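Late entry, evening session. Most of the bench is empty. Finally got around to the prediction I had been postponing all week. Sequence below, unchanged from the version circulated by S.P.
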Amino acid sequence: MDCRTHCGACCIAPSISSPIPGMPNGKPANTRCIHLADNFSCDIFTSPLRPKVCASLQASREMCHNHRDDALIYLTQLEMDTLP
């Protein structure tokens, strides 16, 4: 499955502990990545600077649902479920 246009849920909901260009301490959960463009696409999607953790996340129907709001809910719940 390809990423749905105008979504960006995976660039907002999950926390990222590894450094991101411009975000050396990673990204907290429910925080918009600085590379998420106004059209909800990733500005560094094809860049070698894109973190491996971001590149390893693959779009799926279970995660992405049919609407970005549902994807945000799913990913937020997943984030809460995986907290120590």
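Two things to note before I forget:
DSSP finds three helices and no strands in the chain.
The helical segments are 52-56, 61-64, 68-81.
Will write this up properly tomorrow.
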